[in-house]
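Weekly modeling sync, notes
Attendees: AB, CL, MP (scribe)

Item 1: holo prediction request
CL wants a bound-state model with adenosine-5'-triphosphate before deciding which constructs to order. AB pointed out that an apo prediction alone won't tell us much about the pocket. Agreed to run with the ligand included and paste results into these notes for async review.

Input as submitted:
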Amino acid sequence: STVTRSKLRIGLIPADGIGREVIPAAQTAIEALGSDIPKPEFTHLLAGFEYFTRAGEALPEETVEALRESDCALFGSVSSPSKKVTGYSSPIVALRKILDLYANIRPVLAVADVPGGKPRVDLVVHVTIIHKSNVLSVTDGLFRETVRAVPAGAAGRYDDITIAEQLVDSAVYRLFREPQIYDIMVAPNLYGDILSDAAAALVGSLGLVPSINAGDDFVMGEPVHGSAPDIAGQGIANPIASIRSAALMLRHLGYLKGADRIDSAVDEVVREGIFLTPDLGGSSKTQEVTDEIVKRI
Ligand code: ATP
Ligand code: MG
């Protein structure tokens, strides 16, 4: 980014479940960057279902106000009640609307091949629109036309991008059989959510996959996983999705060196395979994995 900042104001919203265990890990990773980024200034903010049960609201106005005063934010995860609760609606969905974060970007990367492994070829820029417009002709038809109109209205700016399209059911099938054929999938919320959980399985764990919610004026990192009530409170959640979300957020803001340092440290730890949480077959705690990553940063 071209903006020069003397400090970087980061809102932290751990929210529910393992969000409270992995967002502090991402904070430590950012702090370890030292002078590669402007001095981070963290603000701890409330939101979520647990907060709702205490306070009667899921997203207090103070949180929204504080985010408006911030440069960026990290969001953990929210628990969804198993049945409809009067007065409750998801704070992350609300924040995406309020802050106009229209794109949720979810890069799913296998950790770089170890030396001697097959080189991964990734040369073609290839965007695939995922839809079901043969059945949902109005809504998905609109989505498809809207995506197609982007290069058409861009006066040749995207000439190097080939747009393909595919029905969502066949996309799931091909994603499992030959994931390498996809570079970028563009999908509405529901298909994107399902496809990214599926893609997470291909790279080993939901605990590895980061995202950013991005708009023109704000960016919010958020792990793709949910609040994982089955493992919450045990100190064994994989912190990597959140740590990588911090890197993605910094990259989006233009702090490439800081982002690279975080990503390389994560890659090293995963490749070494010694300090891994149980979802990756290891027996390390969230804190141990975080410490190893921070040491390498
Ligand atoms: P939500 O409704 O919020 O999406 P969910 O329970 O459907 O919640 P997740 O919370 O994403 O979905 O969890 C899916 C599975 O993946 C669970 O078994 C959970 O323990 C596991 N999981 C998710 N995130 C992590 C993580 N960071 N580390 C380890 N396991 C994880
Ligand atoms: Mg989920």
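Recorded for review: Residues 114-125 have pLDDT under 50 and may be disordered.
Action items: CL to compare against the apo run; MP to circulate these notes.
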